[in-house]
Specification:
The protein is built from 9 helices and 9 strands. The chain is of the alpha/beta class and 230 residues long. The protein has one domain: Alanine racemase (TIM Barrel, Alpha-Beta Barrel), CATH 3.20.20.10. It binds pyridoxal-5'-phosphate (PLP). Pyridoxal-5'-phosphate binds next to strand 9 and helix 9.
């Protein structure tokens, strides 16, 4: 994609993040995860050239293909989509951070694969704080118990939580979804030894609101790279 256009869009998103941080009086860092799913490896190259160091993919196979082309160390690879247990081993090998840890059975599988590989897998517990049935993620009322059980597994480092806003134009509803995830994450960090405070929330349409509600990782795709044609 055109490098000037991308540089301009990156600057605009970074500026939006900065203004949202300023409005909410935050001093901690917000990482921009560039979501390159469905785009070719060349798009990741363009992202790197534009100064982006974190890339999000939602399928293990697609991440695998891009890692094969660009190298494991080219960027920090974020797996943001639902992960099937039979792909856990590949995910452990490829991803620097898995945002979509959404069940205890998946946590057990990731733990097993991490121990086998002699590595520590870094993950965020995905919570469904919108209550939308179509969304993956642990129900809010089960999240703390589940997180405590996951945290006890070897080879797994829980850095925080991830959530997705509901499909709505109603910003108050979106903000409530983010605020609920933040509260859950703060509770988990207080109650569970080793549980971190990273919060992955916010996409193209709502990343500024997410930053105001405490997001530390925004996952932005179409605003940077254009429509995916889906
Ligand atoms: C596709 C995707 C994004 C990015 O969405 P945009 O609206 O294009 O910014 C973020 N998070 C997840 C989990 C996604 O699947």
């Amino acid at each position: 994609m055109d490098s000037h256009l991308l540089a301009e869009r990156v600057a605009r998103v970074r500026d939006g993040i900065e203004r949202a941080r300023a409005r909410s009086g935050r001093t901690d860092a917000v990482t921009l995860v560039a979501v390159t799913k469905t785009h070719p490896a060349d798009t990741v190259r363009a992202a790197i050239a534009a100064g982006l160091a974190d890339v999000g993919e939602n399928r293990v196979q697609e991440m695998d293909d891009k890692v094969a082309e660009l190298g494991r160390e080219a960027v920090r690879w974020h797996l943001i989509g639902h992960l099937q247990r039979n792909k856990a081993a590949r995910a452990v090998a490829l991803a620097d951070l898995i945002h979509s840890l959404d069940s205890i059975r998946l946590a057990e599988e990731l733990s097993r694969e991490a121990v086998k590989a002699g590595v520590e897998v870094h993950a965020l517990v995905q919570v469904n704080t919108s209550g939308e049935e179509s969304k993956f993620g642990l129900p809010a009322d089960e999240a703390l118990d589940a997180a405590a059980r996951m945290a006890a597994l070897p080879g797994l480092r829980l850095e925080g939580m991830m959530t997705m806003a509901p499909f709505t134009e109603d910003e108050a509803v979106v903000r409530r979804t983010f605020a609920a995830a933040r509260t859950l994450c703060e509770d988990a960090a207080r109650q569970i030894p080793g549980f971190g405070r990273a919060l992955s929330m916010g996409m193209s349409n709502d990343y500024e609101a997410a930053v105001e509600e405490g997001s530390t990782l925004v996952r932005v795709g179409s605003t940077l790279f254009g429509d995916r044609g889906t």
